[in-house]
Structure formats: structure tokens, C-alpha cells
Amino acid sequence: MEETGVQALHKVLDQQHHASGSLLAALEQEFAALSGMNLPALEQAARAKDQLTRELESLHQRQMTLLKHLNVSSRPGEIPDFAAAFPGSAGKNLNHIWHQTVARLQKCQDQNRVNGAVLAQSLRRTQSALAVLTQGETETGAYGPAGTASAPRLSRSLGST
Hints:
Elements: H1 3-36, H2 39-69, H3 78-84, H4 89-133
């Protein structure tokens, strides 16, 4: 087994661990912004989340390349098995950082689900308010994922002065 490959793998896992911690912080900031209806903070958290997700995807690709170079499968459980083959602290450190990163990424996934639920609830409230204002003639999908209107909307007077 090649020590430089193991060191490179450890470095990538360290970077993944750091990026996953930053992603968790961004998701927590997103939750606070959603809960407080703070649009500038929400935009900032969304940008950070996007950038960190791209970084984690890139690091994952590097990890897969290193694992292939080291003849290690990318199946779950293979990295701990691979780490166990190294005596002393090298294997323990590799195994530890792997498990910490996996746990942190699970927390990110959980927080992202919570944020999605908060966003869905806010969307339902907004749609209900629009239904009251437009006498029930709202579109449930007014905007698509790209942020563009899904169908042209007719303007309507809500009252006169």
C-alpha cells in the first residue's frame, strides 16, 4: 500500500470534514433566515450552500479517484476496512475522520430536510394568502425551479381608492 496515496486520501477526508462542517453552518443559517423571513440572509446562505455543495462534489470525485488508485472499493464500509489494515495511528485517524465526516453529512441531510419543510410551509401560507386576495384564482405552481413564472398571470385590481 502506498503511503502517499493514504496521505492524499486523509487530506481529502479532512477537506470533506471541514466543508461538511461549513455546509452544516450554512444550512443552520438558512434555517434561521427562513424562520425569520430574512431575505438577504437567505440569499447569502443559499449562495454558501451552493458553493459548499459544489466543493463537496469535487472532493468526492477526488476521493473516488484516490480510492481507485489505492485499489479500494467505493462501497460503504470499504474505507474503514482499508483503514484497519494500517497499524498505529494512521489507520485510526483515517477511520475516525471518515466516521466523523459521514455523521456530519447525515446532519446536513437532516437539516436540509427541515429547511425544505419550513420552506414548503411558508409557500402554503403564501398561496393561501394569495387565494384570499385573488378570490381563489391562484396558481399553485406560480414559479418553477428556475424562478420563472410557469404561466402568464393576468393582473387584477385588488380595489379602488
